[in-house]
Design goal:
The complex is a heterodimer of chains A (897) and B (291).
Chain A (H helix, E strand, L loop, with lengths): L2 H57 L2 H15 L3 E8 L4 E3 L15 E10 L2 E11 H53 L14 H26 L1 E6 L4 E4 L1 H7 L3 H4 L14 H12 L4 E8 L5 E12 L5 E10 L1 H16 L6 E6 L4 E4 L1 H7 L3 H4 L14 H14 L1 E9 L5 E12 L5 E10 L8 H9 L9 H18 L2 E10 L1 H8 L1 H18 L5 E4 L4 E9 L5 H12 L3 E3 L2 E3 L2 E9 L6 H17 L4 E4 L6 H6 L3 H9 L3 E10 L5 E12 L3 E3 L5 H4 L3 H23 L6 E5 L1 H4 L4 H10 L9 E5 L8 H14 L2 E7 L5 H7 L4 E4 L1 H6 L4 H16 L3 E4 L5 H10 L3 E2 L8 E2 L3 H7 L10
Parallel strand pairs in A: 20-21, 23-25, 25-26, 26-27, 27-28, 28-29, 29-30
Antiparallel strand pairs in A: 1-2, 1-4, 3-4, 5-6, 5-9, 7-8, 8-9, 10-11, 10-14, 12-13, 13-14, 15-17, 15-20, 16-17, 18-19, 22-23, 22-30, 22-31, 23-24
Helix pairs in contact in A: 1-2, 1-3, 3-4, 8-27, 14-15, 15-16, 21-23, 23-24
Chain B lengths: L1 H24 L13 E6 L5 H19 L2 E5 L4 H10 L4 E3 L2 H10 L3 E6 L6 E6 L14 E4 L5 H15 L4 E4 L3 H9 L5 E5 H5 L3 H5 L1 E6 L7 E4 L5 H14 L3 H8 L6 E3 L6 H4 L14
Parallel strand pairs in B: 1-2, 1-3, 6-7, 6-8
Antiparallel strand pairs in B: 3-10, 4-10, 4-11, 5-8, 5-9
Classes of the chains: A alpha+beta (897), B alpha/beta (291).
Chain lengths: 897, 291
């Protein structure tokens, strides 16, 4: 029933009750009162005519008497009926004629009045009158009826006015509110609300408005943050928000009425979806992560909560799915995982947590030290490692320091999974995101409990063996080769050095990934090792490069059968993860003493022969041919030549600019040595620097480079150019006892040059032996004002240790990673890892080998802003630098602003 | 309640009006007349109620004023006896009176009759109720007889004189104010017989008339004269007489005169009333102040 009718009903009932009470109660009462009053008035009237009647009776003036009574009858005849006067003898005096019959009216409504007429105690006669009450009654009833009519009219009017005002005051606003509520129920917040008056409806409207704004606000907030879709109980989409459209790439029309199957990624098992459906169809909330597919086919990960909307019987009638895009999160997770895998072989344990301290990633060494597996701790707090040996304030201080200073370094007692307490050196670093908020924590730690006894063999292993294949590394190989050579000399027999490179290994890596590649390397190296004789040495010296040392050859050609077995072993099919893989090997062989008496010569000759084997069609071996290699040999120099060239001042420094790609700033230049050969022209450093490695002449040249760079700084300074120069410095030179002293002298020779403009790039960090000593040397140099950077970072196994311990300001990402980063995801991941770690340790990072704009763009995306390479500028003559500076601009794509 | 009150007020108001009317009807009425010049007073015997008298005489006096140029003022009297007193003193310049009044007024104040009705003669009638067994006035000895007033000429003076002188009966006289009362007294058996005149008997309601029976008539006398004082100048008297006679010539005038009533107006002289004088009515005349 309409609310209007409901509101009007009491008034209608009131109206009926009023009418009834008037008719049944008030009217009889009024009639009774009127009757009494009427009778009284009639008596009054008769009393008034009493005296003339008396007078005329006394005088026998019947004519006047008749006149009075006729007038009485004439004037009041309508209710005074049957006026009759009797004389004292009882005879009827008036009217003239006897009344034969009463007036034909209801007797019950007649009141008979007898009025005696006295004069001086004597009865003169009597007046008898019938009062007709009927007439009066009708008038009274008529009057009451008109009162009733007025009341009905008034009540109807008030009802009408009431209804109109109720319509205006209650119904109209309620109707609008009802409409608005319906709109809101359909998700439309553009509903018109009634004007809010200062009454209860107004309060309701205001509250409703607040509620509506709140709902809209919440819905807006949700829509801004999350991807929302609603499906019916058949799983068909009934509504999606704009974020859903934005991320999926579909239009609303394409999605409504369809199932979510159209954005299914296909990477989850059917069971996954079945579980999800089982959960929500039972009325439960489902949480989880899954992958969806965009219209473009691209995949994206979402974190989703699906909430069933239950009907009154508790049966789901529709579902709301709230998703947040976690592609970025996933990418970061992947990056971190990769960053961690970069250092998977480090001797230190690594824990990476998110900002809340929940563990996201650990490396293998973490497991070795703590006994916890990766699965044990992912998602847990590092608190599982706490040993109770430190008071809570200790931890509080540790976290506080990390948060304020960005890192904490110290020793801490932790507990292994088996309960054993151990001491660790810990570096805890906070990693900040682009806007300076802490996004991750990175903990690096090493077990120092039994450093001296337990890890000695491990250290040895690390130093001499390849971690993947457990084969001797380059260091042990050198040692073994030297021993074998000494032995062969003593026994007067030959030995062969075979340089082995797997054919098409890169294809395996590219096709099946690194993990498969690594496994293949392990299997192949094991098979090849099994094909060797006892006493032979198989070493791994690089990715797919191996060296075999075959000592004690009685006949020079004895190596042939062994190598054939090796070729066979390498080319045997390998089954990994259900895939049949097959590689082959190309082998170059040099013999001792026939092809060289020095180890490196033998290695180089074997290397050259290996290239010959590749040229010959792979899967074969080739013996070094001295005559064939003469042409190459001509180019080979020795220390003496280089020393002579140095004396003839044939060396020159070229400079390659280093820039900040994001800001366009030119941050410095790297000094690169070139040999201006009188016959061969400009000779690149790799053609002569390896020869003088660890020779005294290299120290002289090193000093010359520093001195020349300082002179150049001075010169540029004079012409108004302040451009810091970095020079390469070998581990050998840095570890000279008098290095600081020599540097001091060189700097003193150029007092006009600020030492801070000089940067020393430490090469071959893996060759640094005594970290403590090197650290001291570097600190002393820093005290002089110069800076340090690590060259070729990422290639050495122990880089992390150096990163932690050695105060280098800048880390240079090796060009071998940069060069392939656009094609090789592993290289990209490594760079991302290096950048993350550099940030974690508050070091700057620079990429070398930036050959194209695209390289620069990719590096910027990873957060690496500093770069050098052909894509920016080739190394150039010092005189060309000023012109280059004035003309250089960063690529527009690097700086969107 | 309110309605009741209104109703109450209404009833009281009506009552008041009625009471005032009753009081008024028994009081003398002041008749309007112009005050300029000489205004002649005209007295009229109050044989009718005052209002009726005024209605009859006012248009006649207006007519006379127009015709003669004199001013007249109607002067009433509350009762016949009061009128007689005034008449004897000669208070009215002109007067319309009954014949016996003229006899007395002529003797006392010298009133001279100017005109009278020549269409009929006056006589008294004695009525009884039709169903009464009285057929002869002689049967009325010792009875109560109703008369309008002691000095009403035909109905009372002449009737009593003739009943006394001609029938020698004794009876009780009940003076009941008006002729109408006389008939009603007879009809309602309040009197055995009543004295009236033919004219008033004729004017009774038919139902009354039908129940009455005339058993005796008196001698006829000249009817009521319109007389003037001898002090009123002759030319005035004559002009008034002429005007009245002129009035009898026109239809409209006749209508007015008929109300007096005068069927056929003509001059009158004192000789017309001499027989009346000879009747010795003074024996039955009741002086003013006594009843």
């Amino acid at each position: 029933v309409n609310i209007n009718v409901k509101i009007a009903l009491p008034s209608l009932i009131g109206l009926v009750l009023t009418i009834l009470s008037i008719q049944l109660l008030w009217q009889p009462l009024q009639l009774e009162k009127s009757k009494i009053s009427f009778e009284a008035h009639t008596n009054e009237l008769i009393t008034l005519v009493d005296s003339p009647i008396t007078l005329y009776l006394l005088e026998n003036d019947l004519s006047s008497l008749y006149s009075v009574l006729d007038q009485l009858e004439g004037n009041y005849g309508n209710y005074l009926k049957n006026i009759t006067l009797y004389g004292n003898n009882g005879a009827q005096l008036y009217p003239f004629l006897k009344r034969n019959s009463k007036v034909a009216i209801d007797d019950s409504e007649l009141i008979h009045i007898i009025h005696p007429i006295y004069f001086k105690g004597k009865t003169l006669g009597r007046l008898e009158v019938d009062i007709d009450w009927e007439q009066e009654k009708l008038i009274v009833v008529g009057d009451i009826q008109s009162v009733v009519n007025i009341i009905i009219l008034l009540m109807l009017m008030s009802l009408l006015i009431g209804t109109i005002s109720q319509y205006q005051i209650i119904y109209k606003p309620l109707k609008k509110l009802k409409g608005a509520a319906r709109n809101i129920a359909h998700g439309n917040f553009k509903a018109e609300l009634p004007l809010a008056n200062n009454d209860e409806i107004g309060d309701l409207t205001n509250s409703f408005h607040k509620m509506m704004l709140e709902l809209e606000f919440e819905k807006n907030a949700v829509n801004h943050h999350t991807i929302v879709s609603i499906t019916d109980n058949n799983g068909l989409i009934t509504s999606v928000n704009n974020k859903f459209l934005a991320i999926s790439g579909y239009t609303r029309a394409e999605l409504i009425g369809k199932s979510h199957g159209m954005i299914k990624s296909g990477i989850h098992h059917l069971e996954f979806y079945n579980d999800m459906w089982a959960t929500i169809t039972q009325g439960n909330v489902w949480h989880g992560e899954f992958c969806n597919r965009k219209k473009t086919g691209e995949l994206y990960w979402v974190n989703s909560t699906i909430v069933p909307f239950l009907d009154k019987d508790g049966i789901p009638e529709r579902y709301m799915s709230i998703r947040t895009d976690m592609s970025e999160h996933k990418k970061n997770e992947e990056k971190l995982k990769l960053a961690a895998t970069v250092f998977t072989h480090t001797r230190e344990g690594i824990i990476i947590t998110d900002a809340t301290g929940s563990i996201m990633e650990v490396n293998d060494h973490f497991t070795e030290i703590t006994g916890y597996s990766r699965e044990d701790v992912i998602g847990q707090s590092p608190r599982v490692l706490q040993s109770d040996r430190q008071p809570p304030e200790f931890y509080a201080e540790m976290w506080k320091t990390t948060q304020t200073k960005g890192y904490w370094i110290g020793t801490i007692l932790n507990s292994r999974k088996n309960g054993e307490v151990y001491a660790e050196n810990l570096t805890l670093s906070a990693v900040k995101d682009a806007i300076g908020n802490i996004s991750h924590y990175v903990a690096l730690f090493s077990d120092i409990t039994n450093l001296n006894n337990i890890h000695q063999s491990e250290l040895k292993q690390m130093a001499h063996y390849d971690a993947l294949t457990k084969l001797p590394n380059r260091v042990l190989l050198a040692d073994r080769l030297n021993q074998a050579m000494v032995q062969s000399q003593r026994r007067h027999c030959s030995l062969a050095v075979a340089f082995l490179d797997l054919d098409d290994f890169k294809v395996v890596n590219d096709t099946y990934g690194h993990a498969v590649g690594d496994e293949l390397l392990m299997i192949v190296s094991k098979r090849m090792k099994d094909a060797l004789r006892d006493g032979d040495t198989l070493a791994r010296i690089g990715g797919d490069e191996f060296v075999v040392v075959l000592p004690d050859l009685i006949n020079l050609n004895d190596y042939q059968s062994v190598l054939e077995r090796v070729l066979l072993a390498a080319s045997k099919a390998i089954k990994i993860n259900g895939s049949i893989l097959q590689v082959s090997a190309s082998i170059g062989v040099s013999t001792y003493p026939q092809d060289g008496t020095e180890a490196d010569i033998l290695m180089r000759h074997a290397d050259q022969a290996m290239y010959q084997a590749k040229h010959m069609g792979k899967n074969c071996y080739h013996l070094f041919d001295i005559t064939h290699d003469d042409a190459i040999n001509i180019q080979q120099e020795n220390c003496d030549n280089i020393s002579a060239a140095f004396d003839r001042r044939e060396f020159i420094l070229y400079y390659q600019p280093k820039v900040n790609m994001a800001t366009g700033e030119i941050v410095g230049a790297e000094a690169l040595i070139r040999w201006q050969h009188p016959e061969r022209g400009l000779v690149p450093p790799l053609d002569f620097l390896p020869i003088i490695e660890n020779h005294a002449i290299s120290l002289d040249i090193g000093e010359w480079v520093i001195d020349t760079a300082l002179k150049q700084l001075s010169h540029w300074q004079n012409i108004g150019i302040i451009l810091p120069i970095s020079v390469n410095i070998s581990a050998y030179q840095l570890q000279q006892a008098d290095f600081v002293e020599r540097l001091t002298v060189l700097l003193a020779a150029h007092p006009e040059v600020s030492p801070s403009n000089l940067e020393l790039e430490i090469l071959e960090t893996s060759a640094l032996n005594d970290v403590i000593q090197v650290s001291a040397t570097m600190q002393a140099c820093i005290a002089l004002g110069v800076h340090f950077s690590f060259d070729d970072f990422g290639t050495g196994y122990s880089s992390l240790t150096y990163l932690r311990r050695l105060p280098a300001r800048l880390i240079k990402i090796d060009q071998s990673f940069v060069r392939d980063m656009l094609d090789d995801e592993d290289d990209l991941a490594i760079i991302a890892g290096v950048v993350s770690l550099a940030k974690a340790f508050q070091r700057d990072v620079i990429a070398e080998g930036v050959e194209t704009i695209e390289h620069g763009t990719a590096l910027l995306a990873l957060g690496c802003e500093l770069a050098q390479g052909y894509g920016i500028a080739k190394p150039m003559h010092a005189d060309d630098i000023p012109v280059w500076i004035s003309g250089w601009k960063p690529d527009v794509s690097w700086n969107p602003e | 309640v309110i309605i009741n009150k209104n109703r109450e007020n209404n009833i009281i108001k009506q009552l008041k009006v009625f009471i005032i009317f009753l009081a008024f009807s028994s009081m003398s009425t002041v008749i309007n007349a112009k005050q300029t010049d000489k205004v002649y007073t005209v007295g009229v015997v109050p044989q009718f109620e005052t209002r009726k008298l005024f209605n009859i005489w006012h248009p006649i006096l207006e007519f006379l004023e127009n015709k003669t140029g004199y001013k007249f003022k109607l002067s009433g009297a509350p009762s016949i006896s009061a009128f007689e007193q005034e008449l004897i003193k000669g208070k009215f310049d002109f007067a319309y009176m009954n014949p016996y009044h003229l006899v007395i007024a002529n003797e006392q104040a010298g009133y001279i009759p100017l005109v009278r009705d020549h269409g009929r003669m006056l006589y008294g009638v004695l009525v009884v109720k039709k169903d009464s067994n009285i057929i002869d006035p002689a049967q009325l000895n010792g009875k109560t007889l109703a008369f309008p007033a002691p000095n009403a000429l035909g109905a009372s003076l002449q009737m009593r004189q003739e009943l006394h002188d001609n029938f020698g009966i004794e009876f009780t006289s009940s003076y009941v104010k008006t002729h109408d009362s006389v008939y009603l007294n007879v009809l309602l058996n309040q009197a055995s017989a009543g004295g009236g005149v033919q004219k008033t008997l004729n004017s009774q309601k038919n139902e009354y008339k039908e129940m009455l029976r005339v058993i005796y008539k008196t001698k006829e006398v000249a009817p009521h004269p319109f007389a003037a004082l001898p002090e009123v100048p002759v030319e005035v008297r004559e002009r008034v007489r002429e005007a009245l006679l002129e009035m009898g010539q026109s239809t409209e005038g006749q209508k007015l005169l008929l109300n007096i009533p005068m069927k056929k107006i003509d001059s009158a002289s004192i000789n017309d009333y001499l027989p009346l004088k000879a009747m010795g009515l003074e024996r039955f005349y009741v002086s003013s102040g006594s009843k």
